[in-house]
Amino acid sequence: MTADNVYQPYLMRIERAIDEAPGIKTFRLLFQDEESGKNFQFRAGQFGEYSVFGEGESTFCIASSPTRKGYIECTFRQTGRVTAALAGLNEGDTIGFRGPYGNVFPLEDWKGKNLLFIAGGIALPPLRCVIWNALDLRENFRDVSILYGARSVGDLVYKYELDEWGKRDDVRLATTVDPGGEAPDWKGEVGFVPHVLEKMNPSSDNTIALVCGPPIMIKLTLPVLAKLGFAPGDTFTTLENRMKCGVGKCGRCNVGKYYVCVDGPVFTLEQLQGMPNEY
Amino acid sequence: MTMIDRKLLKKESVGPLMAVLRDSGRRIIAPQSVGSAPGAWYRELGPEDELDLEHLTTLSPKSAFLPMVEEILRFRNEGKRIVIDDCKIQAQPTVIFGSRPCDTRALHALDAVFLRQPEDMFFREKRAATTVITFSCAAADPDCFCTSVGGGPRDPEGSDLLVTGIGNDCWLVEVWTLKGKQVVELAPHLFQPAGEVETECLVAKVPVRFSLDDVRKHLPVLFNDEEFWREQSLACLGCSSCAFVCPNCSCFDIQDEADLKGGSRLRCWDSCGQKLFTLHASGHNPRGGQSQRWRQRVMHKFSYLPEKEGLIGCVGCGRCSRACPADMNLVERLTAIAEARV
């Protein structure tokens, strides 16, 4: 492939397709060209442009951890033309992938710290890569807590991994669904993420908070974190602005003097407070 | 930039110069009138075509570097297999003959976007293969405001050759780059030495219309004044004509076109004035209102780009004011920003 063309994707084979929830799928992707696969490196927080040839490209994070070599995973909800075409594909089919793009979660800076992950709905994938990254290097971190909420039990993604995390004694996991979204055998919390967070009452001492979710969840969760004493510089999120090129040219993800695709997608709350509210 | 040389060119030598350029394998893109369309248009200039240096061009020569639609990937379906064809680009040596100082200056904004890492090879190859011969403006239009944004009717910024009228039958040719020098060296017999004589040039007077410093100072303060932006953009239809005629605007979309056998991935001009530009899949839109989109247009050109790249995203060509179907005049809007009480 001509590395000179920044718009040229790798060809990827769908090795596994997993139905996560209604309309939500995960693909495990292998590089068709083994050499490219061996040379491919990324870090937690980065994203890519995934394409169905003839339909177009869509932007998703890389949802797998860089500690798991040889493949990448993406999780997406069927919403438009490209994601509908993706959802129609099967194991063995080929898609395009450009990346990795964007900045990273500074995991090296977090050695010896507690990590608190807070995610809502389809926004667990961007944190799942960090969660596995941290769990695979578990000795580098102190307490790991995960709070994950969705509208209903059926909407929770990575259910098989939630079970796995829940069974570990070195992870504190809380799952919650919105009132009315619970199933008869639901053993998790019922309530909105900010309320459950208040109940969890995590210590902000030596702790990094990572928050990803729908805008309304983030908006209501940030004040709770502030009340718990989390500094804006220790609160991280990812911006999900619409993108096309992924390399700082098409102009779509521009927020103030930043391009989310190049300067983000990972930002601290402190950085966001200095940016126009256009995300 | 430092000037390399100064030459004189007789007006009657322009035709022979074109012939030499063509013989050297260069394609000439120059303003000409096209059918009954108003104004002049950049088109490839054949031996029989007539150059029009008098009328303003409706579009800048931007599309010589960033075409309205450009193929950036080609793919084929071979059964279940997908094959990507190498998208190698062979940019033809090209001369843009008759650009205006404002349009040439605007190439800096395009360079900043497409030549920063990772480089865009489609732009880079065309840019490298192109020589820009700019003509100073002998007359200005009421919408022109190059002098208000750092340029001028005889501004050499970005030009390989800058050509200025000095009387009825002669041009002064300033050689600003090696690319420009190569053009002169192709036809040395057509150029005469200009010496050090200070020549009186025929150049338009373009008054300064507003204080750029005040615009830049006021924008960050005005950012959160929703009422101000609402009033500024009340007339805006969101049609994006301003962006499409702008020599600086370079935002684009990427779309696939294909049939069962295969197809192309295309880069197409787009604009921050469009509602769909920023619409999330969830339905959330970070710039959901037209006033926010107008603010983005102004902020990007006069606040973000200067801060990020050290250049203004506007060259004062006035095309947006001429093209706007709702008569939104950029000079009026910028004057209001410069004179706002903050």
What oligomeric assembly is this protein in? heterodimer
Number of strands of chain B: 12
Continuous helix count of chain A: 8
Q: How much helix, percentage-wise, in residues of chain A?
A: 10-25%
Number of strands of chain A: 15
CATH architecture of the largest domain in chain A: 3-Layer(aba) Sandwich
Q: Tell me the structural class of chain A.
A: alpha/beta
List SSEs of chain B in N-to-C order: EHEEEEEHHHEEEHEHHHEEHHH
* CATH topology assignment of the largest domain in chain A: Rossmann fold
**Low-confidence runs of chain A (pLDDT<50, min 5 residues)?**
none
Shape of chain A: globular
| Radius of gyration computed on alpha carbons of chain B | 22 Å
Radius of gyration of chain A (CA) equals: 18 Å
Biggest interface and residues each: A-B, 42 and 52 residues
Any chance you could write out the topology, listing elements then pairs?
The complex is a heterodimer of chains A (279) and B (342).
Chain A: E1 10-21, E2 24-31, H1 34-39, E3 47-52, E4 56-61, E5 72-77, H2 81-87, E6 94-101, E7 114-120, H3 125-136, E8 144-150, H4 159-167, E9 171-177, E10 189-190, H5 193-200, E11 207-212, H6 215-227, E12 235-238, E13 254-255, E14 258-259, H7 260-263, E15 266-268, H8 269-273
Parallel strand pairs in A: 7-8, 7-11, 8-9, 9-10, 11-12
Antiparallel strand pairs in A: 1-2, 1-6, 2-5, 3-4, 3-6, 12-15, 13-14
Chain B: E1 5-10, H1 14-23, E2 27-32, E3 41-44, E4 69-78, E5 81-85, E6 94-99, H2 101-105, H3 107-114, H4 121-128, E7 130-135, E8 161-165, E9 170-175, H5 178-186, E10 191-193, H6 212-222, H7 226-232, H8 241-245, E11 252-258, E12 262-269, H9 290-309, H10 319-323, H11 330-339
Parallel strand pairs in B: 2-6, 6-7, 7-8
Antiparallel strand pairs in B: 1-9, 1-10, 2-3, 4-5, 4-12, 8-9, 11-12
Helix pairs in contact in B: 6-11, 7-9
Q: What features would you describe in this structure?
A:
The complex is a heterodimer of chains A (279) and B (342). By secondary structure, chain A is α/β, with parallel strands linked by helices. Chain A has helices at residues 34-39, 81-87, 125-136, 159-167, 193-200, 215-227, 260-263, 269-273; strands spanning 10-21, 24-31, 47-52, 56-61, 72-77, 94-101, 114-120, 144-150, 171-177, 189-190, 207-212, 235-238, 254-255, 258-259, 266-268. Chain A folds into 2 domains: 10-101, Beta Barrel (Elongation Factor Tu (Ef-tu), domain 3); 107-237, Nucleotide-binding domain of ferredoxin-NADP reductase (FNR) module (Rossmann fold), CATH 3.40.50. Helices cover 23% and strands 31% of the residues of chain A. In chain A, the strands form 3 sheets. Chain A has a 7-stranded mixed sheet with strand order 10-9-8-7-11-12-15, with helices on both faces. In chain A, helix 5 runs parallel beside helix 6. The model of chain A has no long low-confidence stretch (mean pLDDT 96). Chain B has 342 residues and is α+β, with helices and mostly antiparallel strands. Chain B has 2 domains: 5-193, no CATH class; 212-339, no CATH class. Chain B has 11 helices and 12 strands. Chain B has helices spanning 14-23, 101-105, 107-114, 121-128, 178-186, 212-222, 226-232, 241-245, 290-309, 319-323, 330-339; strands at 5-10, 27-32, 41-44, 69-78, 81-85, 94-99, 130-135, 161-165, 170-175, 191-193, 252-258, 262-269. Chain B has an 8-stranded mixed sheet with strand order 3-2-6-7-8-9-1-10. In chain B, strands 5-4-12-11 form a 4-stranded antiparallel sheet, with no helix packed on it. In chain B, a hairpin with an 8-residue loop joins strand 2 and strand 3. Chain B starts with a strand and ends with a helix. The relative contact order of chain B is 0.16. The mean pLDDT of chain B is 95. The chains are: A alpha/beta (279), B alpha+beta (342). Chains A and B meet through strand 13 of A and strand 4, strand 5, strand 11, strand 12 and helix 9 of B.
